[in-house]
User: What shape does this take?
Amino acid sequence: MRLAGAFVMFLFFTLLGGYGGEREKKRLAECEAFLALFEYIKNQVNFFLTPTKVMYRNFANDVLEECGFLPALRSHENDAVYHDIWRSALVSSAKSLHLTEKQRTLIADFGDCIGKTNGEIQSNSFDYYIAELRQEIEKEKIEGAKNVKLYRTLGLAAGACAAILII
Amino acid sequence: MDAIDKVLCCLPEYERRILAEFFSSATDRKKVSEIRFRAGMPASVTYAGRNVSVFCGRELVLSAPALSSVVARLCEESVHTYGSTINEGYITLADGLRIGVCGKARSEGGRVLAVREITSASVRIPHVLFSVGDGLMPIIYEKRRVHSALIYSPPGVGKTTLVRALAARLGGEGVRRRVAVVDSRGEIYMREMFARSLCDFLDGYPKGAGIEIATRTLSPEVIVCDEIGEGEVEALLAAQNTGVPLIATAHGEDFSSLMMRTGLKKLCEAGVFRYFIGVSRAAGEERFSFDIKDMRRNCS
Assistant: This one.
């Protein structure tokens, strides 16, 4: 009985460590997905002058699709009045996203630039946010890799400790 | 949702509440022709031909950033899409809703390169009025023939409303002609009026090019074009050679002032238009008065 309990505790902490690592990976994937979306929007505004309402129609990305952000953006295509859709999509998909507060603010601020000024000014703002998000991704890659290892080790260690204590 | 509701939805909370109260209390929406906002100055509504700037005892003053935000919302947050027309002073949205804009511009060589701050925005409210063309139809469409006509008036009388109604009538039930509408500013088309008509819309084409493309490729039975000027004279003369009747509008106080413009005089002399129709309307009235000049009768 004690052995079984120790095994369960060991498994629980190990999985918890693994889950922490998964979150880090998901965060990185989401940042990269948003970067792809930023670049796409910049092109749509710069070269095609696409109306914001229909801009997201042809953008495909599994990560943003799964978290519900893209479907939320697209769901307003036929609205008679269209504004502040980016922020509301971000709020509606908040629970499925794993972003840090800083990344979330950066993405929300990017949305505030879409379609509010002429193409040239928008393009300059987009460049700024794209550079910022790239930096975040680089940071995430370095820190994320460290954190994945850390969570895994902590999980294993905590699991082993708990198991030893129980035994 | 009508055009007025759309404008209200794009306003900040306080301004929306006051204007909504104004529109719901004492106004017949059909008599509203314009809503105008000015940065740092009172907003106004043109109602029954009068400019109203006090709404339920209050004035509405939008700040410059608030006005820019309202314009962005009216553009469905696609200001970049309308960049070139903003430089020309207007934005045309769906269903003929047109916003005239002006502000602080960056210019070079007589051309506006960008408008960095919008200081005035006048939203012209389009109305679905089939019947306004009734008075002219027997003249323009006579014995199953369509006659060319130039409709003129000073700005704001309702030439676009009139030409829209005529295009819908000529392409609609009863007449059923193939009408090519050169809609350079996208302000003639209204889904509600043209849903069942035989009209082809050349939306956003420069007028001269639009007329040329329409005559060459669309085999129209009538061409309709709003606000012609000197730039379209050659295209109109070429279109005349194909025998397609043309219905166009131009700004002009009266016939003599119209004839002082070289291009229009040339068109008149070439016999492009059979009728020159001066349009006037009493303030707030739906009904138009016409001053019709038949050039064929004048010649003979």
Summary: Helices of chain A lie at 2-48, 52-55, 62-66, 69-74, 85-92, 101-113, 119-166. Residues 67 and 96 of chain A are 5 Å apart (CA to CA).
